[in-house]
Protein: Nucleoside diphosphate kinase
Amino acid sequence: MAIEKTFSIIKPDAVERGLIAEILKMITDTGLKVKAMKLIHMDRPQAEGFYAVHKERPFFNELVEYMISGPVVVSCLEGENAIEKYRTLMGSTNPADAAEGTIRAAYGIDIQNNSCHGSDGPDTAKIEVAYFFNDDELVG
Ligand code: ADP
Ligand code: MG
Structure:
């Protein structure tokens, strides 16, 4: 299987509750490696740009408000089958539907405040990593 990169956000609800270390441990326990990481507080244009694919969805404004409500941890993760592996670790968008052992089952509050983001495919992974990191910020 191919070595891939994916993009992760530990979202405001999780950072605010002091869950950075717990979520990072779940990530690294799967064997995924952190290639780049930073704590940031997004501004509105940055969050709107990141979620541009959702701008017609009814929850877009609420989603942007939430994502700028506090700091987040953005990272680039790498490993075998990284995109699908991390999506599986996150669990379903709605924590109420998320499988046991997933980040969202453990820590998600509701369908919006669901603690984490992960890229949903190779094209979005590339775009999302590049949205937050320059090439020279990735180790190795
Ligand atoms: P995922 O993060 O699982 O890929 P989506 O890409 O569909 O899910 O949605 C992006 C984010 O928007 C979700 O993670 C969640 O924070 C928020 N969201 C999704 N659906 C809803 C909804 N029905 N109401 C409020 N927020 C939502
Ligand atoms: Mg998505």
